[in-house]
Amino acid sequence: MRASRVAAGYGARVAIAESGRFGGTCVNVGCIPKKLFSYAAHFREDFGIAASFGWTASEPRFDWPVLLANKDREIARLNGVYERLLVNAGVTIHRGRATVRDPHAVEVDGKTSTARHILVATGAWPRLPAIPGSEHAITSNDAFFLEQLPQRALVVGGGYIAVEFASIFNGLGVATTLAYRGARLLRGFDAELGTRLAAEMAKKGVDIRLQANPARIANDHHVTFEDGVRERFDLVMFATGRVPNTKGLGLEQAGVRLAADGAVVVDPYSSSSVDSIWAIGDVTNRLNLTPVATAEGMWLARTLFHGEPTPVDHENVPTAVFGNPNLSCVGLSEETARERFGAVEIYKTSFRALKDSLSASEERTFMKLVVDAASQRVVGAHMIGPDAGEIIQGIAIAVKLGATKAQFDATIGIHPTAAEEFVTLRERVA
Ligand SMILES: Cc1cc2nc3c(=O)[nH]c(=O)nc-3n(C[C@H](O)[C@H](O)[C@H](O)COP(=O)(O)OP(=O)(O)OC[C@H]3O[C@@H](n4cnc5c(N)ncnc54)[C@H](O)[C@@H]3O)c2cc1C
User: Fold this and answer.
1) Ramachandran area for residue 93 (φ above 0: left; ψ -120 to 50: alpha; else beta)
2) How many CA atoms lie within 13 A of 53 on its CB side?
3) What are the tens digits of pLDDT across the range 213-257?
4) For labelling, which of 18, 105, 124, 248 has a CA lying 20 to 30 Å from the CA of 282?
5) What are 338-378's pLDDT values in tens digits?
6) Rounded distance from Cα 141 to ligand 1 centre (Å)
7) What is the reported pTM?
8) Which residues line ligand 1 (CB under 6 A)?
């Protein structure tokens, strides 16, 4: 979408092929409906906290079909917005599944079009583990369209999609188990975050089982775990990774090199091994986030049609996990910073948010700064707590610009907020 529109804006003649709905994974079965569900799930606690501020209301009741219908209406609206954006930009739309026929030809529904450049931006698809009965489980693609909420759900995985859906189900009143084969949630994030997040989610009622992995699933959703434990759930959801969408696309026949996982292998300019074929977004399996995919699209349009060769920049990309509580970070984990710089300084804090102080909520907000000892630059910022995603976006600008700890400290905080802690962290803990 973004590459098409920006390229057309630079004067290129552009056609787009789409086999699904406009907006891709993010709009239809990713970020947007997920965040709507996440808002819905958070209300359970908000009702509880409201009581501590003196509010009384009748016993809250949750109606899943209402949420589903409202979500579907909003997504349909966005599909229309996206299509109109393309039409207004002068992009020709081909509806249907595209296959690459040769380095300059693409076929959609038996009709072949030729082009100087072909851009592959076909995204990724959930991967189910190869265990007996995995066909009885759902993936995130299905979770957005469940006819009814289960009473007991098992979410399998330790990445952000698993964490987010476990929090959503739990918040909506489903007895939720999160099983992950690893020893810590959120591999690749700062190690402390995964451990702390698991503890916070457990406080809220999610049954977190680490080093637990299903071995098979019966058709009545009895799950047998690798350690022999057998248990029945009403719904099993796998969030166990995603594979780049290149199967049957004709790329290998056209000479495009694919990695072992099927990702299109690209150089920093998103060029594949075939000069006229380019690839961006999840299909390249670099940094699988929507704003990264759209930025890659804009950089490529600039490279091809604006005379300004622009390599991708994946440094200091902020990210958030919209579980309950929220989690976010930018820059390096403590572990990676130690590997890269040797000496690092660590500042952190953990506290109860003011909004929770009148209630029985046990939730603790956590913040951490990682500083390169030699340059004194803040190279990592991490947070668990309300609005973590909103807060880290501003911090990301400072980290991207290479701000030092002293510059963080010279910034006046906004009181009383949680965010002010990022500029008042004085005590070094390591
Ligand atoms: C549950 C979930 C939650 C997520 N939450 C977030 C989040 O909160 N924040 C965030 O930044 N990222 C999030 N992501 C990741 C984000 O959705 C992806 O990084 C982003 O959508 C990648 O964009 P893309 O353009 O590469 O691919 P996609 O958005 O997957 O788009 C690919 C498009 O290509 C079409 N297509 C595929 N094959 C063909 C073909 N042969 N012919 C024609 N059309 C084809 C598909 O229909 C699709 O529309 C989430 C993902 C999931 C699954």
Assistant:
1) beta
2) 10
3) 999 999 999 999 999 999 999 999 999 999 999 999 999 999 999
4) 105
5) 999 999 999 999 999 999 999 999 999 999 999 999 999 99
6) 11
7) 0.97
8) 17-20, 24-26, 30-31, 34, 97-98, 121-123, 140, 161, 245, 249, 281-283, 288-291, 293
